Amino acid sequence: MNALTISARILLFFAGLTGAAGIMLAAASYHGDSAVLLSAALVCLANGPALIALALLSMRTATGLAAGILMIFGTVLFAGDLVARNYAGFGFFPMAAPVGGTSVIASWLLVALAAIMPVRKG
To answer: What is the pLDDT at residue 118?
Structure first.
Protein backbone atom coordinates (compact mmCIF):
# COMPACT_ATOMS: atom_id res chain seq x y z
CA MET A 1 0.00 0.00 0.00
CA ASN A 2 1.24 3.47 -0.86
CA ALA A 3 2.08 5.93 1.89
CA LEU A 4 -0.46 8.69 2.38
CA THR A 5 0.32 11.94 0.64
CA ILE A 6 0.40 15.20 2.57
CA SER A 7 -2.86 16.18 0.83
CA ALA A 8 -4.53 12.97 1.99
CA ARG A 9 -3.27 13.51 5.53
CA ILE A 10 -4.69 17.04 5.57
CA LEU A 11 -8.07 15.80 4.36
CA LEU A 12 -8.02 13.05 7.00
CA PHE A 13 -7.17 15.62 9.68
CA PHE A 14 -10.18 17.70 8.71
CA ALA A 15 -12.33 14.57 8.47
CA GLY A 16 -11.54 13.87 12.11
CA LEU A 17 -12.28 17.43 13.18
CA THR A 18 -15.51 17.49 11.17
CA GLY A 19 -16.71 14.20 12.62
CA ALA A 20 -15.88 15.28 16.17
CA ALA A 21 -17.65 18.60 15.61
CA GLY A 22 -20.69 16.74 14.31
CA ILE A 23 -20.93 14.60 17.44
CA MET A 24 -20.46 17.61 19.73
CA LEU A 25 -23.05 19.63 17.83
CA ALA A 26 -25.52 16.75 17.93
CA ALA A 27 -25.11 16.53 21.71
CA ALA A 28 -25.43 20.31 22.08
CA SER A 29 -28.53 20.23 19.89
CA TYR A 30 -30.12 17.53 22.01
CA HIS A 31 -29.35 19.21 25.32
CA GLY A 32 -30.30 22.67 24.07
CA ASP A 33 -33.20 21.56 21.85
CA SER A 34 -31.78 23.53 18.91
CA ALA A 35 -32.79 22.73 15.35
CA VAL A 36 -30.06 25.12 14.13
CA LEU A 37 -27.33 23.13 15.86
CA LEU A 38 -28.88 19.89 14.59
CA SER A 39 -28.59 21.20 11.02
CA ALA A 40 -24.92 22.02 11.59
CA ALA A 41 -24.38 18.56 13.15
CA LEU A 42 -25.97 16.78 10.20
CA VAL A 43 -23.75 18.58 7.69
CA CYS A 44 -20.65 17.72 9.70
CA LEU A 45 -21.69 14.10 10.18
CA ALA A 46 -22.36 13.69 6.46
CA ASN A 47 -19.18 15.40 5.29
CA GLY A 48 -16.73 13.96 7.84
CA PRO A 49 -16.89 10.40 6.45
CA ALA A 50 -16.94 11.76 2.90
CA LEU A 51 -13.63 13.52 3.61
CA ILE A 52 -12.11 10.17 4.57
CA ALA A 53 -13.06 8.78 1.16
CA LEU A 54 -11.86 11.95 -0.55
CA ALA A 55 -8.49 11.62 1.20
CA LEU A 56 -8.06 8.24 -0.49
CA LEU A 57 -9.44 9.49 -3.80
CA SER A 58 -7.08 12.48 -3.71
CA MET A 59 -4.16 10.08 -4.12
CA ARG A 60 -5.60 8.99 -7.48
CA THR A 61 -7.09 12.18 -8.92
CA ALA A 62 -6.76 15.92 -8.40
CA THR A 63 -10.55 16.17 -8.57
CA GLY A 64 -10.75 14.29 -5.26
CA LEU A 65 -8.45 16.81 -3.61
CA ALA A 66 -10.40 19.76 -5.06
CA ALA A 67 -13.67 18.25 -3.83
CA GLY A 68 -12.19 17.76 -0.36
CA ILE A 69 -10.88 21.30 -0.10
CA LEU A 70 -14.20 22.72 -1.28
CA MET A 71 -16.09 20.46 1.15
CA ILE A 72 -13.97 21.67 4.08
CA PHE A 73 -14.48 25.30 3.08
CA GLY A 74 -18.24 24.87 2.67
CA THR A 75 -18.67 22.90 5.88
CA VAL A 76 -16.79 25.50 7.92
CA LEU A 77 -18.83 28.32 6.41
CA PHE A 78 -22.20 26.59 6.71
CA ALA A 79 -21.88 24.89 10.08
CA GLY A 80 -19.65 27.59 11.55
CA ASP A 81 -22.08 30.34 10.62
CA LEU A 82 -25.00 28.45 12.18
CA VAL A 83 -23.03 27.81 15.36
CA ALA A 84 -21.96 31.47 15.57
CA ARG A 85 -25.54 32.63 15.10
CA ASN A 86 -26.73 30.21 17.78
CA TYR A 87 -24.13 31.09 20.43
CA ALA A 88 -22.98 34.63 19.57
CA GLY A 89 -26.19 35.96 18.07
CA PHE A 90 -24.54 36.91 14.77
CA GLY A 91 -22.97 35.03 11.89
CA PHE A 92 -19.69 35.29 10.03
CA PHE A 93 -21.00 37.61 7.31
CA PRO A 94 -24.27 38.01 5.38
CA MET A 95 -24.99 34.93 3.26
CA ALA A 96 -22.17 32.87 4.83
CA ALA A 97 -24.38 29.81 5.39
CA PRO A 98 -25.82 29.85 1.83
CA VAL A 99 -22.34 30.30 0.34
CA GLY A 100 -21.12 27.41 2.49
CA GLY A 101 -24.07 25.23 1.53
CA THR A 102 -23.55 25.97 -2.14
CA SER A 103 -19.87 25.11 -1.76
CA VAL A 104 -20.76 21.77 -0.17
CA ILE A 105 -23.17 21.00 -3.01
CA ALA A 106 -20.45 21.88 -5.52
CA SER A 107 -17.99 19.60 -3.70
CA TRP A 108 -20.41 16.68 -3.99
CA LEU A 109 -20.80 17.43 -7.70
CA LEU A 110 -17.00 17.29 -7.99
CA VAL A 111 -17.16 13.86 -6.39
CA ALA A 112 -19.52 12.80 -9.18
CA LEU A 113 -17.17 14.37 -11.74
CA ALA A 114 -14.25 12.42 -10.27
CA ALA A 115 -16.02 9.22 -11.32
CA ILE A 116 -15.62 10.13 -14.98
CA MET A 117 -12.25 11.91 -14.87
CA PRO A 118 -9.03 10.12 -15.86
CA VAL A 119 -6.99 8.60 -13.04
CA ARG A 120 -3.42 9.74 -12.31
CA LYS A 121 -0.74 7.37 -13.48
CA GLY A 122 1.85 6.10 -10.99
So the answer is: 75
